[in-house]
Amino acid sequence: MSQLKSISRTSIQDEVFKQLMGKITSGEWTPGEKIPSEDHLARLLCVSRVTIRAATQRLSALGLVKVKQGEGTFIEKYTASNHLNLLIPLLAIEKNDIMHLMQLRKILEVGIIEVVAKTITDSGLEKLQDICEKMKAGRDNRELFAEYDSQFHLTLADLSENPLIAVCYSVISDIFFSAMKQIAHIMGPDEALRCHQEILESLKNGDEKKAKRLMQKHIELTITAVSNSISRQGDTG
Questions:
Q1: What phi and psi, each to the nearest 5 degrees, are found at residue 102?
Q2: How many CA atoms lie within 13 A of 66 on its CB side?
């Protein structure tokens, strides 16, 4: 049995995801098998539990694993359908490409929040609240903050209870995360945290229109920040 490798601090979430996915696609972890616990994987890979959890959430959204509350995470049957979800590569995003990425995010996330606002439960709100608290606590660690930022939006896609939305968002979340650290540096954590908290409050209040407006504003502010950064770099280049 091949050994899992310890992870360097660069592209940490992507590397964890790829290693766990490799265990599945190679057949080393078989359908129905329970994978090691978050604590065990975190020790093996020398990463945090939140990184392991983010990776397993992405695998779950792709239909490769199933998380059973109180029991653990189990391997799902590997089919041609979920194989297609893995074809988009993990990319190192340049700032000009981030602009196109943000335009896509605006379309997707405003649609996602509209669905979620209609169906979200107290349990879903608690999940988002927990992530916001972790974002606040991790605001001084750019990489950790980016992980929680990504997790917030991935959780929204999961809360849509639409498997197609969850799968589509999970596929492109790999690309999104590559940009998150750059965006956090450009915008700063305080602005990003404020936007997420306002979105959460609108969901708590059942205000669908406000939730959509805030999500659109959040992505537009990000687009503006990135655009200004690109312009400044052009002026100094």
A1: -65, -35
A2: 11
List where CATH 1.20.120.530 sits in the chain.
95-236
Answer for the pair 176, 150: CB distance below 8 angstroms, yes or no: yes
Element (H, E) at 73: strand 72-75
Distances 32 to 60, 67, 74, 76, 136 between C-alpha atoms, Å:
14, 11, 6, 6, 37
CATH 1.10.10.10 domain residues, the chain: 12-84
- What topology does CATH give the domain 12-84? Arc Repressor Mutant, subunit A (1.10.10)
For 95-236, the fitting CATH number among 1.20.120.530, 1.20.1250.20, 3.10.129.10, 3.30.540.10 is 1.20.120.530
What does the pLDDT profile of the chain (237 residues) look like in tens digits?
566 655 444 468 778 888 898 888 778 898 899 999 999 999 999 988 888 988 888 888 777 899 888 899 999 876 544 444 443 333 334 556 667 777 888 899 999 999 999 999 999 999 999 999 999 998 888 778 888 888 899 899 999 988 788 877 777 776 666 566 666 666 778 888 999 999 999 999 999 999 999 999 988 887 787 777 666 655 544
Query: How far is Cα 155 from Cα 77, in angstroms, rounded to an integer?
Result: 23
29 DSSP 8-state letter: S
Burial status of residue 207 (CB atoms within 10 A of its CB: 0-12, 13-18, 19 or more): middle
